Structure formats: C-alpha cells, structure tokens
Amino acid sequence: MTLEEKILPGDVLVTAELEEAIRAVLVNDVVPCASAFHLAAERQLAPLAVGQAADALGIHLGACQLGLFGYPGHAKGWTKVAELPVPEGLEAALLEAAGATQQLACIQLWELAEQFGIPRLQIGFVTDKLGIKIRPCQLGAF
Hints:
This protein has 2 domains: 60 residues, no CATH class; 54 residues. Strands 1-2 form a two-stranded parallel ribbon. A two-stranded parallel sheet has the order 3-4. The protein has 6 helices and 4 strands; from the N terminus they run H-E-H-H-E-H-E-H-H-E. It is 42% helix and 7% strand. By secondary structure, the protein is mostly helical.
C-alpha cells in the first residue's frame, strides 16, 4: 500500500513537537523504521502513533527492520542475510506460529528473532522465503 492509498483515522493529530522530531530524523526525506521506534519510546507513544503522524505529514517510512521495504535501489533489505546460517528450529517455529493463515505480525517476528538470537533482517528474509505474509506492521506501514 502506498502512502497515498492510506486512510488515516480522523483523530490523528500531529503536534508541532512531534512533527519537529520526525523531521529531525529524516534520512533522504524518509523516516527509518528504527528512528520511528526510537521516537515512540522516547516520547512514550505507541509506534503506530508515530507511523500515523508521519503518514499525516506525507512522509514515507523506510529501512524496515525486517527488510520488507524502503531500501534504495531494491525493494527488500536483505542483501547479505541470505548468507547467514538459519538456526535449527527457526523455520518450524515460523510455520507453526503462522498457522493456517500463513501470516505473522511484525511484533511476533521481533519476538522470535530475539528468542533465536538473530537479526530482525534475517528473520524477515526467512519468513519471506517460506512464503509467510507479514502484517500488520507496528508503525502502520501495511
């Protein structure tokens, strides 16, 4: 879904301070995912609130920590993670967690990445390779 296709809730209000903070972390006119999460934690906001504020300002999110979008020159962020060994049991854990829907939420993948001691990009790569859909995004990107 593109930024232009998003329909935001009518109650999204972006304070001047939040707008300033979002604009301060822009890299090539895009808010990196990690920066959005940092802002949310720093301001005690839900990540979704920061993502929706960026959307309301017409600012794109990028550099998804799972590697799904926002990488210049290519759509996905996993150029080298394919070379990393896949921990034993990870694929089975992903398939079991995804269940019949073959879908997992971003937050579930973050938790599994921590459990298996691997980078978020790597779990995004393995999940994509298995054909499991990832949604929803904690920032509301999809």
